[in-house]
Each structure stands twice: as structure tokens, then as C-alpha cells.
Design brief:
alpha/beta, Alpha/beta knot, 5-stranded parallel beta sheet, 5 helices
Length: about 160
């Protein structure tokens, strides 16, 4: 299975980028993983939130073509423990999903077209997290899920 993390805008903070690179490197032992960055819109200061969401939707949907399953990382999504998330991943692998795409939207969230294209929504927390921190937290949880599935000593429960 291939896992793609699709994000809007680059990661500015060096400490977050370092963590993202660390866990992305660890993931290579378990799954084909790539993080694809869609550049942030240049002139969004003069645009309404609806217009920004619509323009980002066009870019996101273009990058999601060919993905078998699309999961939005969304504050209104279902919440999972780390073990439950690993079970979710196992179900996707068992179903023969070739490309599983997780998507982090921009600051204003997702347009209706992106919600319509998605198969699932997952929330990492009921708390609000920055879009840049979500990347690191998600990649760490992805790594944790694979160590759980392999029975390795990373996750303590």
C-alpha cells in the first residue's frame, strides 16, 4: 500500500520539519509514504474564506486523482485511539487499497467538493491544532500504528 499525505502550504518551522523528516524516514520500513505539498495561494489575503476553500479544492482534487481512498484530517471527523487507528490501517490494507491519501486542508478547512470526494474523516484531537503541527502529529501516529501492527516496542499500553 502507498500512503500519501497531501498538505496545503509548506512547513515553516524548522523543529517541525526535523520531526516530520525523522518519522517519514522511519515509515519507509513499513510502507511507501510520501508527503506532497501544494503551495499556499499567493493572493489569499484579498480573498474570502469561501473563495480560498474553493481554489484550494481545485488543487487538492487534482492531486487526489487516482487515489483509492481519501481520508480528510478534519476537526469534525471520528476520533480513534492509536490502536484503533492501526486497525483502520489494517482494514485498508486487507481491502487491497493501493493508494490511501490523507489530506490536511488550509487555514479555512475544506470546500464542499473535497468533503464530497472523501471516503472518511478523522480527527486527531478535539483541540484546535495548527496545520503545520498536524503534519508532525499525524506522521508520528502513522508510524506508531505500523509499530503496533508489527508488535514492536514503541507503543505502550
Amino acid at each position: 500500500m502507498n500512503i500519501k499525505l497531501l498538505v496545503v502550504g509548506k512547513t515553516d518551522a524548522t523543529y517541525l520539519q526535523t520531526g516530520i523528516e525523522e518519522y517519514a524516514s522511519r515509515l519507509k520500513h513499513y510502507v511507501r509514504f510520501e508527503m506532497e505539498v501544494i503551495p499556499a495561494l499567493k493572493d489569499q489575503k484579498n480573498a474570502s474564506p469561501d473563495e480560498v476553500r474553493m481554489r484550494e479544492a481545485q488543487l487538492l482534487l487534482r492531486h487526489l486523482e487516482g487515489c483509492d481512498r481519501i481520508v480528510l484530517l478534519d476537526e469534525h471527523g471520528s476520533e480513534h485511539s492509536s490502536v484503533q487507528f492501526s486497525q483502520f490501517l489494517q482494514k485498508q490494507m486487507n481491502a487491497g487499497i493501493r493508494t490511501l491519501a490523507f489530506v490536511v486542508g488550509g487555514a479555512f478547512g475544506f470546500a464542499p467538493e473535497v468533503y464530497a470526494a472523501a471516503h472518511d474523516k478523522i480527527s486527531l484531537s478535539r483541540m484546535t491544532l495548527t496545520h503545520q503541527m498536524v503534519r508532525l502529529f499525524f506522521i508520528e501516529q502513522l508510524y506508531r500504528a505500523f509499530t503496533i501492527l508489527k508488535g514492536e516496542k514503541y507503543h505502550n499500553e
